[in-house]
Write a structure and sequence with these properties.
This protein has no helices and no strands. It has 56 residues and is low in regular secondary structure.
């Protein structure tokens, strides 16, 4: 490759999409680590998991 003046092309496998320099709005922490609610249906939580796929 060097003899013919060819170079490899480097591609990033992962693109960072989060912009950490943004300010509010962020969601308030209403649970505030109180994991034992007084009654059912007082606190609901969820989790967002990102899965990499070929289509993006």
């Amino acid at each position: 490759m060097h003899t013919h003046g060819l170079r490899k092309t480097w591609r990033r496998k992962f693109i960072h999409t989060k912009d950490s320099r943004h300010g509010p709005p962020t969601a308030p922490n209403v649970l505030d680590r109180q994991f034992e609610p007084e009654a059912p249906n007082q606190a609901w939580v969820s989790d967002i998991t990102y899965l990499r796929t070929r289509s993006g």
